[in-house]
Amino acid sequence: SIGLSAVIDRLDAGTREHEGLGMGFLRGWSFVLFLVVSVSLATSPDRSVAAASGAPTVEQYAAHVGGQIVPYGELVIDGSRLSCGRRPTVLDSTLDDYGAAYPGFLIINPRLIARVPKAVKLWIYSHECGHQFRGPNEEVADCFAVQRGRRQRWLTTDGVEQICRFIRPAKGSNMHYSGPQRCQLMKQCFDSRRVY
Hints:
This protein has helices at residues 31-36, 39-42, 47-53, 58-65, 110-113, 118-134, 138-152, 157-167, 179-191; strands spanning 10-12, 15-17, 68-70, 75-77, 80-82, 89-91, 99-102, 105-108. By secondary structure, it is of the alpha+beta class.
């Protein structure tokens, strides 16, 4: 999860406001389960991995929330085709955050992600993909996402600034640093040659 459930744009009388940061990972499924699943489980696209870990399969999750499964390599956001290895994406407009991840699949809230600039959308997707390859650490997922954007040439320093404006209102939690701290770390990762 990118931990922005409470930064979600709240349209109130045509004015955009940001609330404080909350975890808001997933309703009905335990986040704790994700934390206890090992990195090796998180990196496997095999459906049997989710079943063995006790996490829902992509089909179970989609059926539970009424979401749409987009096969790997078929997700297109603002003209960009996105993939995260061989992992599918569930479009879940009931998710209380912009994105989330379970072992073997990603989750995107299309209603919320439509409200942010393209660089932020691609960063959100890449952040969740980072959890698939690097595990549950939020700062590592942030670094993975900005470095992926730099390598794939969809993220520039201006795009990093868009991400920082988006994340800046976020308050820190037990899972995430504050928005300004995350922004500073992402800028360092963007400039770093060390691969996350």
